[in-house]
Design a protein that fits this description.
- Two copies of one chain form a homodimer.
- In chain A, helix 4 links the parallel strand 9 and strand 10.
- The N and C termini of chain A lie far apart (about 50 Å).
- The first copy, chain A, has eleven helices and 17 strands.
- Chain A is globular, with a radius of gyration of 21 Å.
- With about 350 residues, chain A is α/β, with parallel strands linked by helices.
- In chain A, helix 4 runs parallel beside helix 5 and helix 8 packs antiparallel against helix 9.
- Chains A and B meet through strand 2, strand 3, strand 4, helix 2 and strand 7 of A and strand 2, strand 3, strand 4, helix 2 and strand 7 of B.
């Protein structure tokens, strides 16, 4: 069984309108609403894979009850801890037209989310420890709600390790930095999260090798990404899988460095990183070797991009992607990357 | 026990923002969310009065589950019928500032609400008939969701009458017209609803008696309102209580015509009409004579206007208003009103 932790779920609501009547009453032509937040996306993906899972986390208020009911309807197994605060909503207005009042196609309103008390978190920890008893893996995904310390994921990773359960961590910022130090089995940063953690750019301008790269389109510098991933391993992570969008996955593991790529597909990348995290946890739980684990992760990410609804995938796309993904051991020139980074470091202080 | 029918509930969400960043991401400084729709307001008011009530109606989807959970938390007794569609949300953005992107203080997005199937409505009717068995009164409030015929309230009033339960009806348009014909104990239109039903203006320009009244501020013409109320009685309603805002209540009943007024209070009139409907049903259920029934209704309406949150009231305001409300038998010059209406009718065709 895979335990999924979602401490800051959300309800994502989208209203489609022909054109917004600012300052007036609008009647949307279409309404979409579904549970979101990275942990919920991971749980839904695992459920669609047919994996045995248990979703844990914090829900509260009107929105929390709605999310819990919807998960029940979808058959996603969950043991969520009730909190007094109100689970957050995101509200997005997508305007089709470009009328007089039109100021941009998409306007979003993000609620801050609940304040979580120490007592509530202690109750969650009880649920979490109970769930770990029968688990083969745990996934910790997404942001932390207000009131929880940046070391929260680190603590949960240590608790899992004490119960013999390997952890997959997918978050950002200080929570990721602290989590890495707690020794998770896998961390899955994207390029931006890895850059923030490394404190330097890991991409090069597209179509050129000029020294400046401060603006314009860029693509990940695979050697630099590999180096940053290696550094996260020295800081504690047992394996690092960087998700690089169309460039696929770059992994630094106890079984060496790997790269996995699916043929590029057009679509909606929202939720693709969560699909990768779900597949990595699934592969970890059922003991897939690294090259198979990465093949499934890259294929599921690509199938998720191809699906019209963010964070979902079709079995056919997934099966097709599994046959077209390439996985190979990486052969980067690490020396060159190191030299480049040292030059950048000099630029920064000079 | 009072049965409250809410066929088209809503979740009302308000985001307060300093100024709206149209086309960008906004993080509201305050978020308010609460179950709404006229029937839910009536149920909450009756619950706050300590009345024995049962809320019936239709809820569905993520929003429906959230509303049901919130009613449970507030302790409002409910036996709601589940539907497949999604209960509607209203989303209001209230901007404090008047920055560059500001186009008006309040922008609203109203979801259309669910489509209700014949099978779902039949299931509701079963619940409703069961609830009527122990009821002293029923309140039918608000709009009808898509898929339900305009005669729905009429049918429900007839079902209640067959069970010996008097009905209070508060709706508008064709549903009100059809409902009146079914012989409810009380209908409670506001001025606009009464005007729509009468097919003519029932107000006079403020501060003058000129023949034109097409524009500018106006106040209800009490004689004309009385006449329109009398006409609704001839069409089937046993009593008509028109809620006229600061002008109070004007009632045409089997015990004669009455007027009830509270001293004018500043505040938020939203939900005040629902408080009046709740008080009328309460008075009906416990057998208050008309003058007492109207005194409580006018006082509760005034206390609701005075409360900072729409649709709520404080016991202190209610108690105070009960001592200041005036109730008296109306002594309108009905002949003059009739003459005026006939003159208006001639104007319309001439």
């Amino acid at each position: 069984m895979i335990v999924v932790v979602c401490l800051n779920p959300a309800l994502d609501i989208t209203h489609r309108v022909p054109a917004v009547n600012w300052g007036g009453v609008n009647r949307p032509s279409a309404v979409y609403a579904r549970p979101g937040g990275k942990g919920l996306n991971v749980a839904r993906t695992l459920h669609a894979l047919g994996a045995d899972l248990l979703l844990t986390g914090l829900v509260g208020g009107i929105t929390g009850a709605g999310i819990e009911a919807e998960l029940g309807r979808r058959g996603v197994p969950a043991a969520l801890t009730a909190i007094a605060g109100e689970t957050r909503r995101t509200f997005t207005i997508a305007a089709d037209g470009t009328g007089a009042g039109h100021k941009g196609a998409v306007t979003a309103f993000y609620e801050a989310g609940p304040e979580v008390s120490a007592r509530e978190f202690a109750e969650f920890r009880g649920q979490y420890e109970k769930a770990l008893a029968g688990a083969e893996a745990v996934v910790l995904s997404g942001s932390l709600p207000t009131g929880l310390a940046a070391g929260t994921y680190a603590t949960l990773i240590e608790t899992a390790a004490a119960a013999g359960v390997p952890a997959v961590l997918d978050t950002h910022g200080e929570a990721l930095r602290r989590g890495v130090a707690a020794g998770p089995a896998i961390v899955k940063p994207n390029l931006e999260e890895l850059e923030n953690l490394a404190g330097r750019r890991l991409s090069a301008p597209l179509g050129g090798s000029g020294a400046s790269g401060a603006s314009g389109a860029s693509s990940p510098d695979l050697a630099a990404v590999t180096l940053a991933a290696d550094q996260l391993r020295t800081l504690g992570a047992q394996a690092v899988v960087a998700s690089l969008g169309p460039q696929g996955l770059l992994a630094a593991t106890g079984d060496g460095r790997w790269q996995a790529r699916a043929p590029e597909v057009a679509g909606n990348a929202t939720g693709a990183g969560d699909a990768v995290a779900a597949a990595l946890a699934h592969g970890l739980a059922i003991g897939r070797p690294w090259h198979e684990r990465l093949r499934h992760a890259a294929a599921l990410g690509a199938a998720t991009v191809a699906a019209p609804v963010a964070g979902e995938f079709s079995d056919a796309d997934y099966a097709r992607a599994l046959t077209t993904v390439t996985v190979h051991r990486a052969a980067e020139d690490l020396g060159a990357a190191r030299d480049r980074d040292m030059a950048l470091d000099r630029d920064e202080v000079g």
